[in-house]
Amino acid sequence: MWRKALQLDTVAVALVPLGCAALLVEASLRTAHRDADWSELCAYEDTNRVVTGEHVRELERRGFVCIPAAMDGAQVARARADAQALYSSGRFAASGNEAEVRQDHIATIRATDGTAGAAHAERGFATLGSGLLHAIQLTRGVSHALDMHGYAGLASRRVPRQVQLSAYAADGSASYRRHADACSDSFLDLGLLEWLRLRDYRERTLTAILYLNSPSWAEQGAAAPGSDAGSGGALRCFHAKGFTDIVPRGGTLVILDAKVIEHEVRPSAGATRFAITSWVISDSAT
Ligand SMILES: O=C(O)CCC(=O)C(=O)O
Ligand SMILES: [Fe+2]
Fold first, then answer.
1. Is 181 a pocket residue for ligand 1 (Cβ < 6 Å)?
2. What Rg value do the Cα atoms of the chain yield, rounded?
């Protein structure tokens, strides 16, 4: 009897470290960045055209830069219609963050969605419209455009194939609390397991955001009476001198240092606020 109990104890004692090891291995392998592309493979002519040397110097100096009219009105309208169609089709879901942190809905999309080139799980998705495909290439091209102007940030940058398409409700109920996009906490702060699980967030070095709203989207409370363009929803970037609010007008491209620039999204009104976000990653952060 006691011999049997001893054997069970031995098995249990052996299982604990095995279970822990399995958890750690699973956490360290969990990544959506495995097939990220090197920057130069994401080169896109339109991005190279709109991002200038002056923008890059501003990014280096301030940690963020706002580039208006990176897409023309027709391109914005097409991308917005595609985003709206995807939103209505039910592909958006609440993000993985806690509900008090952010209340937007997101879809993780790839240019290959619904095509033979997609991973098995993504083959069943609807293919993306030309407006969204252009917006994805434009944001994914940012890292290479920065290289063309000798950006002083980290070298060896890669760009994940998936981008985030976010939707903030028109009724002012959705915002995103102040945060930095990259996780800079050490494993002493987070514990080893959590630190390993956050690998994709630790690798982030730059954020590129492209707004798919009406180009006449207005500042807080400034929407023209009867306008359906939408208003508010500023991207508030914090810096040493306070903060700068960026109006999310359709076609505006924002690039920010994901480790340094804390930011928040203010509630919007009048229209759903759509944005595409692509993160640039750096392996040297692992
Ligand atoms: O949509 C924006 O303006 C920013 C979104 C954002 O901060 C994020 O998704 O991390
Ligand atoms: Fe963010």
1. yes
2. 21
Kindly report, residue by residue over 76-132, the tens digit of the pLDDT. Answer: 999 999 999 999 999 999 988 889 999 999 999 999 999 999 988 899 999 999 999
Q: Find out whether the beta carbon of 277 lies less than 6 Å from any atom of ligand 1.
A: yes
The amino acid at residue 238 is F
Angle at 89 between CA 208 and CA 161, to 5 degrees: 30
Which ligand is closest in space to the CA of residue 249?
1
The ipTM of this complex is 0.99
How far, in Å, CA of 258 to CA of 280, rounded? 9
Tell me which of 164, 179, 207 to substitute to probe ligand 1's pocket, judged by most ligand atoms within 8 Å of the beta carbon.
207
